[in-house]
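Thread: quick sanity check before group meeting

JM: Hey all, I'm pulling together slides for Thursday and realized we never actually wrote out the predicted structure for the chain we discussed last week. Dropping the sequence here so it's in one place. If anyone has concerns about the input, flag it before I start.
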Amino acid sequence: MARVLVTGGAGFIGSHACKQLARRGHEPVVFDNLCRGRRELVKWGPLEIGDISDAAALDRVFRQYRPDCVMHFAALAYVGESMSDPSSYYHTNVTGSLTLLDAMRRHGVDMMVFSSTCATYGIPDVVPLTESHPQHPITPYGASKLMVERILTDYGRAYDIASVTLRYFNAAGSDPDGEIGELHDPETHAIPLLLMAADGRIPRFEVYGTDFPTPDGSAVRDYIHVCDLANAHVRALDYLRDGGRSVALNLGTGRGTSVLQLLEAVERVTGRAVPHRLLPRRPGDPAILVADAVMARKTLGWAPTVTDIADMVATAYAWIRRRSPAMAKGSVETAPCALHAGGVSR
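JM (edit): ok, ran it. Output follows.
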């Protein structure tokens, strides 16, 4: 079928996309510097270690494998970190993407599926968010992704590079087969942190904000299963290969789950209480972020298959239990929490 260069394919979402590419008969070639990716998540094709800012490394991989298209996941993606170190975010996410796109031009590759984010929207005026909502990001992370979206528009117009930009909301869950899952260091995503708190591996889960204008006062987010995200990327690839025009699409379930509802779901799935602490909201945290994904359904024929938050939690829990004898046996091992995060970060 197609040979696909998958930048960041050793990461959480990228590795799930590689599995689905292989299932569809495509050949994923992973290009990852392993700074935050994990070698053990690369199972369905070759791994080439390199950085997207390294033009010579990219030229070597393009010459060796001659990919038909690119799935571009490689990026720094910690919202809080982007506030304290914007230089790294603009260098990696923007300059790195430019270097990658110019390598595509040199080697005649004219299709890209780009991993973007709802963080490009900033504080929403209305929810659910459609693709026409104004984009006013409030963090360097969101701004860096929006810059790449603009670059893709300009490169499409000038150099005929077709792209599908996928703005997804909160990735959740893990591969139901248990082959791959979420492995972040440090961990910032809500569901793994809740499961770690239930297991005693961090002292508590911290809930930032209980006075939002939401039913229970905690922030509401749209959680989407990682396998549904991966499926959308493969469908976007098929769309481009069939001659589809460049487009930006939201990916979400259209259903909001509050932080406290998520905590309750973890307690139901695990049968364990989650120690937690209620803290003031963080500056800039939107009360509600929920996607309108109608365009993705119309354009790609895509729809999420996992919409119940407990089902998402269950797949993440199964993955953690496979990797943690302590959780599987019900014992508790306490470890310091290297980084506390609220229940709303991607």
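AS: nice. The two ends are 32 Å apart (CA to CA). The first helix runs from residue 12 to 23.
JM: adding both to the slides.
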